[in-house]
Amino acid sequence: MRIRGIALRLHPTWFVVLALLTILFAQEYQQTLGASAGVVLVWSIALATVLLLFLSVLLHEFGHSFVALSQGVKVRSITLFFLGGVANTESECRTARGEFLMAAAGPAVSLALALGLLLVQHKVVHLSPALGEMTMRLGTLNLMLALFNLLPGLPLDGGRIVKAIVWQLTGSQLRGVEVANALGRFLSLLALGLGLWLLLRNYGGGLWLLLLGWMGLGASRGEQQRLMLQRLLGEMRVRDVAKRRFRVLEATEPLRAVSRLRLTPTPAVATAPSTPSPAGAGATGEGPADWLLVCDRGRWTGVIDDEPLRQLPVQRWDDDRVRDHMRPLSSLPAIEENAPLWQAVLALEGSEPSRLLVLSPAGLPCGTVDRPDLGEAVLTRLGVRVPEAFLARARQQNAYPLGLALGSVARGIADAAEAPPAPPPSA
Description:
The protein has helices at residues 12-33, 39-70, 96-127, 129-149, 157-170, 173-200, 205-235, 256-263, 307-311, 341-350, 371-381, 388-397, 406-418; strands at 2-3, 6-10, 75-81, 84-89, 246-250, 291-296, 299-304, 327-328, 334-336, 356-359, 365-369. By secondary structure, it is α/β, with parallel strands linked by helices.
């Protein structure tokens, strides 16, 4: 199901919570409504309460999503799971004001629902005690949902509000994330401590606090890792990760030279010079080089692939020259060696190229960069050593090692870089 292009999804854990909460509410309604209430009525009201509660959660997420759409942020989906719901957006908001409005929209919807339900509860209870009880519970639960989400720490809405306020005051989105994430970590540790204390005193609610604290701590750790990746992708330059994964041919060589190079094992060479090297110069890594660059008397002129070999008969391989079938060098996706690494990530994400040609300040080829090399360099900077088997698999799939999600991190940096600076706070 889709609403305004937003896919609605149910996580498998939602069905488990649906059953557990229905049982819990049925027991509570049985005690509240008394023995006069029939079994069918009790279970029907319990199931309706759970479904309406998750409808409230869905409306909460729609509050976030509709404001996000108004701020130019595309929302991919809304997923209901055992702890509520989450909206999946393509990028972050580009302004502190937009971030504030997006974060506040969800709790505002929940507060409005709570106020409306609690105001009509007295009228509904005269029509039906069971419906009045359900209305009161839904109003109370929506109030709790709003207040809980307003706690000032990521990943809660209150943490995003803190992030937006700090961003507005300091002009730094990164600083806002750091402050909100620190508060989120503190709240998670507090929930863990309080949950353990309640559990030792035989209060069942301690288990929920432990679960929330553990998940909050995991989210805080994930946000901290994201911050580290943002810093690295901003500090590192393309030249820091560039390898040489190309070979060089002279424009005057026969077309057979292309076939010869493809059959020649690739020696390991870490970097590439900015001037052409002899034919057969190798690339880092295993297997044949993907790119064959062409030079003519010391000048870079083009690139050639295997297509001419497939189209022409073998008898012509010695007569036709490389220059007769090469493409211009500009046909390759390229990036400057001094560019920040996040720009290379975005370039690799865009049109799904297998790699980028790295150019020196003079515009000469000086290396290449691809996802496996880039991911390995980032992980090495983080102190993570990737086993060779994982690197080989990443190279076969043209993917980042260990499933490193650099694309979303780079998009966040790009959004922040394009965001207008926050105005200074008024006196």
